Amino acid sequence: MMLFSLAWQSLLSRKKTAILTFLSLTISILVLISVEHIRLQTKESFNRTISGVDLIVGAPSGQLNLLLYTVFRIGSPTNNISYNSFSMLENNELVDWAIPISLGDSHQGFRVIGTNESYFKHYHYGNNQILKFEQGKAFSSLFEVVIGADVAKKLNYNLGDRIIIAHGIGRTSFSKHEQAPFTISGVLSPTGTPVDKSVHVYLSAIDAIHLPPAMLTKLVKNPTATPPATKSITAVMLGLKSKFSTFGLQRAINVHPSDRLMAILPGVAMAELWNLMSTFENLLRVIGALVLISSLFGLSTMLLASMYERKTEIAVLRVLGASPTVILFLILLEVVILVSLSIIVSFLLLTLALLGLEGWLASEFGLFLSHNIFSEELLLLIGLIFIATLFVSLFPSIEAYKNV
Hints:
The protein is α+β, with helices and mostly antiparallel strands. It folds into 2 domains: 2-47 and 277-403, no CATH class; 55-264, no CATH class. Helices cover 54% and strands 16% of the residues. It contains 14 helices and 15 strands.
């Protein structure tokens, strides 16, 4: 305790230098733990995009491609599967529920998803969270549409507004289905997933808007008329009654004789996709580590520069009976105090920043970052920071030990 008090008083006697070193360490540690926390939260958010789906079935195109266009709305399907295949899967005794997905159209750059009521009932994200409506309800007629939170916000849409769907997925399209405007029946609450950037319509509405103009006009004027039968869809999301049947059903689907089908496990495909992003992930960690290393060398330089100023102080301590080992531990203790304070302040600043910006990050960027920054990975990182700090500080401490 006496050694701690002595180290604290020594730091106070060099207040200006100590404060500058403290600020440098705090900024570098803040950058490092912020990068690590955001990396961990981004990975968790990535894995939370879809939850509870056991299999995704589509045309053979590679599991990453199938995952990207069904879950993340990126890219385009190479082929469709027949609607009969969907009916077969939906009625399979191992299947609890099935969500059809039909892609190919857009609205001002936002993807249009053809589906049915099962989507709003069984599509889960995050920790098995269900889709909720911020306004309105699910579609109940052929030309009603449900939009994601980002679509409503960026295009300033409200319930009852009418929108025109365009052919293709480009932001600008010269082929618009103007004869069949859709009325907004519901706006989904923010999820931080691609659902926020999606426009949802009835599965049969996708087929209806591609009818010849005369037939489409007749259907629009008579909403009670029977919509065209759906012949093909893009993909199917399946929830199974038992997880133990996943691999067996996957094999059966992949060798199905009547249609070329491919079933993938979302978790496996996501792990593969995240591995492809590991270079960028590691780059962020390297940048944070370099910032910390530069600050640690600054700390070492400060200690070396202070050795000349502290000759009198060290001499007095020696007269009072302090051994060279005590002097060495005194300098290391000063470093531990500075780093500990920097870590505490860094954690406080990051927590306050996340609390203050939580709503803004969620609404503007769809980032749901937890303000609980304590995790096994970050605690390990703090341990590594202490080890690196002590290692860098050994040289000036040993110099002081030799010169005693």
